[in-house]
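User:
I study polymers; will you set down one protein's sequence and backbone structure tokens?

Assistant:
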Amino acid sequence: MTDPHAEQPNTRHYRECEDCHAAPDSGDIRITTVGRDLTVSETWHTAQCPAYTVEQILMEAGAAQVKEQSAWAKEAFPAAHGRLRAAATALPAGTAADPFVAALLELVQAQADDTGRFVALPTWAEILQRHFPPQDPV
């Protein structure tokens, strides 16, 4: 199998700050970001650069928002999980919805078992294979 990134052109880009025009060899501050397409961008700033100040403010605000969302989710998730289980228990058995309900309950339980991480794709595949096994070709 070939490396999926082998055919890509250089994915590292240097962007000059339009405000301070700092450079890599000046000993200034480097901001490195990675995009969804795995492109790495480097931007250099001086400590007094207004663009750098804005980036810092936005980064700190984003971090605070993530902390707030995480705290809320840790409190809300167990109750919502309980309501899901109660609703599933109230459904009549022996319907076409049974494998969907069972798979959903198992997936949510997998997340509940460790709320500090996301359920990995192999776990999703195992659960879905168990409830929706491949059909033999006709």
Notes: The chain has two domains: 1-73, 91-133. The CA atoms of residues 111 and 119 lie 6 Å apart. Helices lie at 50-90, 98-113, 121-131. The two ends are 31 Å apart (CA to CA).
